[in-house]
């Protein structure tokens, strides 16, 4: 679990160092803006934004039982972040697989995207959908709630 916090903590520390440098240069407004930007980046890349990831096999088994979509994602992907934010609370109902932590998940994504690790890739009822519209994904979750 600690590995998931490495990037966000590095962003917070880097932002603090950059902001301190700006304060010493006499630019507190710039320091505050930069610190806020680094904190926002840290928050977006933290486990607070994405629900806990599972392995591809476990996610597919759970999806077969409850009918909820499986979403393959990776940290730092702006399209994954957009999907997660636009889904809002509905995102917690999906099964999320981090392809950087799960080789089987990465292989599953490559298999349906011509060898590319294109994310987000949502699998709904066995059918893959690359970079799906967040509204459509939300509709796929609604019937099962």
Structure commentary:
- This protein is of the alpha+beta class.
- It folds into 2 domains: 2-44; 56-144, Glutaredoxin (3-Layer(aba) Sandwich), CATH 3.40.30.
- It is 52% helix and 11% strand.
- The protein has 6 helices and 4 strands.
- The chain has helices at residues 6-24, 28-44, 56-66, 78-87, 103-112, 134-141, and strands at residues 70-73, 95-98, 121-124, 127-130.
- A 4-stranded mixed β-sheet has the order 2-1-3-4.
- β1, α4 and β2 form a beta-alpha-beta unit.
- α1 runs antiparallel to α2 and α4 (78-87) packs across α6.
- The longest helix is centred in the first third of the chain and has 19 residues, at 6-24.
- The two termini are 29 Å apart.
- The mean pLDDT is 89.
Main β-sheet, spatial strand arrangement: 2-1-3-4
What is the percent of helical residues? 40-55%
CATH topology of the largest domain: Glutaredoxin
At CATH's second level, what is the architecture of the largest domain? 3-Layer(aba) Sandwich
Helix and strand sequence: HHHEHEHEEH
CATH class of the largest domain: Alpha Beta
DSSP strand content:
5-15%
Terminal CA distance reads 29 Å
- By DSSP (H or I, 4+ residues per run), the number of helices equals 6
- What's the rounded overall pLDDT mean? 89
Number of strands: 4
Low-confidence stretches: none
- The tally of domains stands at 2
Q: Could you say which overall geometry the principal axes of the C-alpha atoms support?
A: elongated
Largest sheet properties:
4 strands, mixed
CATH superfamily of the largest domain: Glutaredoxin
What gyration radius follows from the Cα positions, in whole Å?
A: 18 Å
Category by helix and strand content: alpha+beta
């Amino acid at each position: 679990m600690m590995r998931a916090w490495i990037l966000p903590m590095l962003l917070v520390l880097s932002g603090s160092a950059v902001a301190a440098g700006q304060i010493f240069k006499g630019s507190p407004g710039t320091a505050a803006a930069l610190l806020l930007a680094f904190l926002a980046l840290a928050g977006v890349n933290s486990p607070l934004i994405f629900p806990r990831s599972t392995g591809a096999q476990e996610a597919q088994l759970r999806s077969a039982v409850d009918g909820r979509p499986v979403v393959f994602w990776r940290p730092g992907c702006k399209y994954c972040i957009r999907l997660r934010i636009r889904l809002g609370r509905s995102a917690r109902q999906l099964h999320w697989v981090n392809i950087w932590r799960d080789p089987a998940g990465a292989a599953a994504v490559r298999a349906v995207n011509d060898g590319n690790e294109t994310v987000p890739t949502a699998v709904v009822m066995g059918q893959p959908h690359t970079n799906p519209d967040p509204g459509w994904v939300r509709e796929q979750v609604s019937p099962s709630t």
